[in-house]
Task: structure prediction
Amino acid sequence: MTRLEELELAIESLPENEYSQFRRWFLERDWEKWDREIEADSTSGKLDFLVKEAQDAKAKRTLKDL
Result:
């Protein structure tokens, strides 16, 4: 049995309250990872095209309000 299969079985056997705690922990961990990736992409310039698109749309008066 792989580690992943062992984890799956362990998670499936959790009582509802512990499963809810696990989900909150996992989702928070996932969002933190996503935040780090976005920060790294922003710092490296990978997202600069989004600013350019917004500036171009503003200049053309096609920028939409959120």
